[in-house]
Amino acid sequence: MSHSEKHSDETLRVNNLQVNFQTDEGELCVLNNVSFSVRKGQTLGIVGESGCGKSVTSLAIMGLLPQPHGRIVEGEVIFDGEDISRFQGKAIRAIRGNRIAMIFQEPMTALSPIKTIAKQMFEVYELHAPELSKEQWKQEAIAMLGKAGIPDPERILGLYPFALSGGMRQRVMIAMALACKPDVLICDEPTTALDVTIQAQLLELMQSLQKEMGMAILFITHDLGVIAQICDEVAVMYAGEIIEQTDVYSLFESPRHPYTHGLVSSIPSLRNTPKTKLNIIEGQVPALHEMPSGCRFSNRCPHSDDNCTQRAPQLESAATNHLVACHKYKVL
User: Fold this and answer.
1) In which element (H, E) is residue 154 found?
2) Rounded CA gap, 62 and 186, in Å?
3) Calculated CA dihedral for residues 6, 53, 173, 107, nearest 10 degrees
4) Cα–Cα distance for residue pair 246/30, rounded to 1 Å
5) DSSP 312
6) What whole-number distance in Å separates Cα of residue 234 and Cα of residue 140?
7) What count of other Cβ atoms lies within 10 Å of the Cβ of residue 300?
8) Greatest C-alpha distance within the chain
9) pLDDT of 25-80, one tens digit each?
């Protein structure tokens, strides 16, 4: 299936998105030709190391790129048949937090420290459900906090964020994000700061809420373990580009891109000989103003040749439902 083909149950589609940032080094391309789609009831994972453009992708979809430095140069974000990347002001605010919601990495910075949980949840309803009474807001908030696995939600409403643990704060964020029953939920590394048992509980919670509400989830992470647990499809990002995209099983069973191959083979395994060195990907991601002219991974790739350094590969079909941007994938 080509990435231009359309699914009838597609909820969100990003087409050829390019985002530039104005910096001291001039205007730099942060996202280059990024395309993907998320379907109703499905989870698409975007995986890649820090600085690859994962979070910029989510901010571009939400209309939250830092102003005036960040801008969408070309491409489109299609939601409900409309290109919302051109929306501004009231038009984007009607969608943001209502039909497309987002959970951020660090709930302590996303939640206000000087307002109670009730006040912050009521702000969501005030913006998107003003026709309801305050008592109805309270009942809705209690119900959503309960769904998010928070015990005694009525008591929690009266507390400030600092009185809650990290896992509880993240549950409050999930309840706030799902308050308006969005069509799309964007999760930007929402479990990174939490210990693994809390992380597993939250991922299970999000999967059960997804089943119940039928929403599409875009899950951004650098953690392949999380990808394996929660995602149906995966897009691998490197240096602002999607370099491989397929279903979650194919990604772990037969990664085609050398970078994905490096990521998958660097995961510790119980089958490994104890105390042997883990595989690593040599080198580091080039700075945005020092990108190689051909394939952006060519300076770290063990298979790279002159063709790779001169000609940028296009994302093309390597197998059924498996896209890869690599000149060498056939011989890996």
Assistant:
1) helix 153-157
2) 9
3) 180
4) 23
5) P
6) 34
7) 19
8) 68
9) 889 999 999 999 999 999 999 998 888 899 999 999 999 999 889 999 999 999 99
**In one letter, which amino acid is 319?**
A
Q: pTM of the entire structure? A: 0.90
- In terms of Cβ atoms closer than 10 Å to its own Cβ (0-12, 13-18, 19+), residue 96 is buried
**Alpha-carbon span 46 to 233, nearest angstrom:** 9
User: Average per-residue pLDDT in the chain?
Assistant: 89
* DSSP 8-state assignment for residue 84: G
pLDDT number for residue 6: 47
d(CA 328, CA 332): 6
Ramachandran assignment for 214, one of left (phi > 0), alpha (psi -120 to 50 degrees), beta (any other) = left
Beta-carbon contacts of residue 102 (< 8 Å; ≥ 6 apart) = 58, 62, 96, 177, 185, 186, 187, 188
| Residue-level pLDDT at 272 | 60
Strand 233-238 versus strand 241-247 pairing type: antiparallel
Q: What is the pLDDT of residues 99-120, one digit of tens each?
A: 999 998 776 678 999 999 999 9
Helix (H) or strand (E) holding 244: strand 241-247
